[in-house]
């Protein structure tokens, strides 16, 4: 069954104007009614790095979790953040952005790839100790704008290593929206079959004209886990195109339903969440035109 991971955290994190905590709470509570597999709701990182998400713990304390089947995922960038997240039983998943671009790893988590591997081991131990699952995002998984070497063999090597280290959920991240349908098909088509115990996901950033080809290529080649954000809000701050936003959830849902897939979602609750999103994100947020 296809899993949709809704990512309000990714949609919110780059917005400079602080979104009131109660607004976040109301929005995420509405998302919890939809029936998404997982809500990527917040992060435990330095408030200096991501000031928008400094209220993640407060948001979590007000979420209505008794009548939802959705699980919660929080992003962490180091062991300190992982320890903070592990204090909350409500969180099922810890997400860690592991970049295979040396430049982006430094920019994103202020560490080298080598040191990031060590961080990852520490975070993995904390997750196991506290009964949480670790989701590793392979950032810059489809290329990078920094001139760092990238090819499918490098991706394969890191997947091999992370899988050997016991990572069970790996999400390939198209951080700047450069993935082509051919590259997506090749990677998922060759990575998924050798690892039946690993769940592979797709975290795509996209433009208004390329979203469907990316989803189709991933789905046709075995991917069953897809990240999205309503109306495509958010995206990577380092993207080279202002229209490179998150994969729009409503577009994904429409495509999957056209393929005859039963997503198990409450469509009325989803439509209300879509309407509510315009009250959360300021006019001019990246990529809002995709919903037109």
Summary of the model, kept short:
With 292 residues, the chain is of the alpha/beta class. Helix content is 39%, strand content 17%. The chain has 11 helices and 9 strands.
Give the overall pLDDT as a whole number. 91
Helix content range of the residues, please?
25-40%
The CATH architecture designation is Alpha-Beta Barrel
- Low-pLDDT ranges: 237-241, 285-292
Shape: globular
Please, could you describe this protein's structure?
The chain is 39% helix and 17% strand. It has 292 residues and is of the alpha/beta class. It has a single domain, classed as TIM Barrel. Strand 7, helix 9 (211-220) and strand 8 (225-228) form a beta-alpha-beta unit. Helix 2 packs antiparallel against helix 11 (267-280) and helix 8 (181-191) runs parallel beside helix 9. The chain is globular and about 45 Å long.
Topology record:
Layout: E1 3-6, H1 8-12, H2 21-32, E2 38-44, H3 56-61, E3 71-76, H4 79-86, E4 93-99, H5 102-109, H6 113-129, E5 133-139, H7 152-164, E6 169-174, H8 181-191, E7 199-206, H9 211-220, E8 225-228, E9 245-246, H10 249-258, H11 267-280
Parallel strand pairs: 1-2, 1-8, 2-3, 3-4, 4-5, 5-6, 6-7, 7-8
Antiparallel strand pairs: 7-9
Which descriptors apply to this entry?
292 residues, alpha/beta, TIM Barrel, 9 strands, globular, disordered C terminus
């Amino acid at each position: 069954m296809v899993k949709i991971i809704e990512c309000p955290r990714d949609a919110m994190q780059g917005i400079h104007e602080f979104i009131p905590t109660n607004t976040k709470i109301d929005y995420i509570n509405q998302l919890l009614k939809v029936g998404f597999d997982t809500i990527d709701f917040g992060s435990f990182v330095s408030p200096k790095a991501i000031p928008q998400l400094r209220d993640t713990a407060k948001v979590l304390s007000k979420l209505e979790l008794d009548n939802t089947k959705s699980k919660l995922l929080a992003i962490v960038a180091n062991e300190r953040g992982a320890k903070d997240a592990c204090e909350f039983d409500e969180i099922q998943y810890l997400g860690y952005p592991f970049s295979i671009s040396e430049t982006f790893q430094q920019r994103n988590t202020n560490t080298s790839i080598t040191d990031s591997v060590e961080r990852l081991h520490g975070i993995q131990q904390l997750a196991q100790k506290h009964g949480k699952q670790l989701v590793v995002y392979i950032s810059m998984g489809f290329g990078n704008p920094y001139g760092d070497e990238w090819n499918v063999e490098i991706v394969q090597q890191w997947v091999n290593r992370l899988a050997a280290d016991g990572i069970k959920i790996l999400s390939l991240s198209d951080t700047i929206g450069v993935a082509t349908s051919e590259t997506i098909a090749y990677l998922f088509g060759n990575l998924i079959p050798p690892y039946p115990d690993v769940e592979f996901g797709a975290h795509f950033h996209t433009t208004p004209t390329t979203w469907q080809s990316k989803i189709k290529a991933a789905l046709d080649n075995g991917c069953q886990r897809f990240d999205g954000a309503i109306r495509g809000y958010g995206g990577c701050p380092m993207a080279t195109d202002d229209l490179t936003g998150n994969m729009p959830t409503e577009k994904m849902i429409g495509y999957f339903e056209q393929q005859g897939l039963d997503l198990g979602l409450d469509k009325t609750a989803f439509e209300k969440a879509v309407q509510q999103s315009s009250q959360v994100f300021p006019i001019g947020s990246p990529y809002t035109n995709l919903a037109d």
